[in-house]
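Incident review: delayed structure delivery

Summary: a single-chain prediction request sat in the queue longer than the usual turnaround. Root cause was a stuck worker, restarted by the on-call engineer. No data loss occurred. The affected request and its eventual output are reproduced below so the record is complete for anyone auditing the incident later.

Affected input:
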Amino acid sequence: MSDGHGDHGHDDGHGDHDHDDGHGDHDHHRHDAETVAVAVVTVSSSRSLEEDDSGDWLVDAFEDAGNEIVVRELVDDEFDGVQGAVDRLARREDTDAVVTTGGTGVTPDDVTPEAVTPLFEKHLPGFGELFRRLSYEEVGTRTVGSRAVAGVADGTTVFCLPGSENAVRLGTEEVILPELGHLVGLASRDDDGEESSSA
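Output delivered after worker restart:
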């Protein structure tokens, strides 16, 4: 009896087909960005940057991984403010990725997904799916209340994480950092397959 793992007698779509998700392409990391310029945005009406443990952790994690923090901001839990901040940062030529923390829950003032997803020209549903799968191992079924999302806005990769430091740590260490350079390199490519000069 086979569970399908290791049974290569069927076409599961992950063979040597010529498609652009990287499966079967030994050189699919050739566009990876070695250093990523990151904007960190904390979404909160109840804390200041001086009290922002999650934001502090994000800054340290990205810098420790060899990336650059180009902007760090705090915005209120308010639709227009969140959307405006992410839109402005995604359009900056010196920014490759925007990472937000906060506002992804289910309280009335949690508006980050509603504010940010209209900016996406491409959605990355696997980010939220994988984050919640990993989060389940830590918090159980409470993970259904997390609405972490990611996508590409104006050629800039955007990740929206919950506000808790544990969630930020999980999402960053287990999902964002392993894939950041790859996703940024792909998202910033122009139509000819070369990296765009503007992130």
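Verification: The beta strands are 37-43, 68-75, 97-101, 122-123, 149-153, 156-161.
Action items: add queue-age alerting; document worker restart procedure.
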